[in-house]
Amino acid sequence: MRERLTNWAGNIDFGARRVHRPRTFDELGEVVSAADRLRVLGSGHSFNRLADTDGDLISLAGMPRTVEISADRSTVRIDGGIRYGELATHLAAEGLAVHNMASLPHISVAGAIATATHGSGVRHGNLATAVSGLEILRADGSTTVLDRSHPDFTGAVVGLGALGVVTALTLDVVPAFELRQYVYENLPGQSLHAHLDEILSAGYSVSLFTRWTGTDIDQVWLKRAEPLTGDLFGARPADGPRHPVPGMPTVSCTEQGGVPGPWHERLPHFRMEFTPSSGEELQSEWHVPRTAALSAIEAVAGLRERVAAVLQVCEIRTIAADDLWLSPNHGRDSLALHFTWIADTDAVLPIVADLEKALAPFDARPHWGKIFTTAPADLRASYDRFADFTALVDRFDPQKTFANPYLETLLH
C-alpha cells in the first residue's frame, strides 16, 4: 500500500510511488542508482509541486549527521539532511554562527538553499549565499564537488533539486554573536513612507508585519546588538511578547523585549522546540528591487481589502544582492513581500494572480517554493542566466532522473 505523504501545510499530496529513507551512504547510492525518477524531500516546507514527483521520493533526514568545522574555523561542512536548528546548536557550542537564518529553524539547510530561502537584513544575503562548496550525487553514481572557483558553482547552489542529491554542503561561518529582539506596534503609515529605508536599516534584521486592514504597520520586529529605548518612528514598544499573527500563542516565539541572547535564539522568529503553527496556512512571496520598495508596497495596498479577506499576516523584509543564477535576489538588493494565507487554495489563487499583475511592473520574482501563478516563460525572462541554468541541468542530469512535471514545464 502506497504511503500517503503531504507537505508541511497539507495542501500537496505527493504523488510518489514510494518514499526512501536511507540511513547509510551505501543505501543512498543504491536508491539513486536504481531510480528512473527521483526527487529529494527536505522538511516539506514548500507549498507547490516543486518537490513532488511521478517517481520516488528520498529523504536524507535519517542519514548520519555531519558537522565538520575547518581548521581555520571559517567554514563548516554539513550533511544534506541537517536542519538549521540542529546546525545552530552545534555551531553555538563551538562559538560560531551562520550569518543569517530563516523565520523557522525547523527547515532543512539543503532544501532552503536549493530554493534561495532567506532571512532578513539590508546587508545580508539569503541563506544560499553562505554556501562555499557543495557535493552532488548524480544519477550515474558519480559525485561532483563544486566550490566558488568552479564556473558551475553559482548556477548549482540554487539548484531546485534538479542536478542531483546534495549530500554535503560547506558554509561560511562567523564568530558567534548576541542580539536583542524588539517588537514595536502600530507604525504610522506616514512614517513608513517617510522613513522606510531608515526603519529597514535599524537592525541586523528587520521585519514589518501587516494584515493590510489599515494604513499602519501592525508590528515591527527588530533584531540588533545595541539596546534601544523609546518609540521607533512613532511605533510603540510592545508591552509583552507578541506573535506575528494576532491571537496565536506567543510561547513558540523567540524571546523579545530587548533581552540579549545568542544569535540562533534571536534571528528566527520561532523556537526550535515548538511547532510554530498547525500548518493550516498557505504562503506566497515575491521579491522586488529595493529601489521600488515603496511603489511595490503601494501596489499591494491598492488591493488591500481583497488581500486582507484571505490573509493571516504579511511580512515585509529585505535581502542583499547576490550572484546566484536562480536567486530571486540575483543582481539586486531586494524587498520581499511574504504572505501567509488562510488554508483555502480556491480563495487564495485569484488574489495571488491579482498581486502578480500589480507587482509585474517591478519585475517581481516569486519564491520558488511558494504559491504563484506566474507563467514559466515570464519566470525564465526574469533571470538573465536562466538559459545557462537549463543547460547546466541538461549536462548534470541528461536522463532527467531528478526532473518532475513541475520542473519540466518550468525549464522548457
Short description:
The protein is of the alpha+beta class. The chain contains 11 helices and 19 strands. It has helices at residues 25-34, 84-93, 109-114, 153-156, 189-200, 293-301, 304-309, 345-359, 376-381, 386-396, 405-411, and strands at 19-20, 38-41, 56-59, 67-69, 75-79, 96-97, 131-137, 143-147, 165-172, 174-175, 178-187, 205-210, 217-224, 236-237, 261-262, 282-289, 311-319, 334-341, 365-366.
Structural topology:
Layout: E1 19-20, H1 25-34, E2 38-41, E3 56-59, E4 67-69, E5 75-79, H2 84-93, E6 96-97, H3 109-114, E7 131-137, E8 143-147, H4 153-156, E9 165-172, E10 174-175, E11 178-187, H5 189-200, E12 205-210, E13 217-224, E14 236-237, E15 261-262, E16 282-289, H6 293-301, H7 304-309, E17 311-319, E18 334-341, H8 345-359, E19 365-366, H9 376-381, H10 386-396, H11 405-411
Parallel strand pairs: 1-3, 2-3
Antiparallel strand pairs: 4-5, 5-9, 6-10, 7-8, 7-9, 11-13, 11-14, 11-15, 12-13, 12-17, 16-18, 16-19, 17-18
Keywords: Oxidoreductase
GO cellular component, one term: membrane
InterPro entries: ALO_C, FAD-bd_PCMH, FAD-bd_PCMH-like_sf, FAD-bd_PCMH_sub1, FAD-bd_PCMH_sub2, FAD_lactone_oxidase-like, Oxid_FAD_bind_N, Vanillyl_alc_oxidase_C-sub2
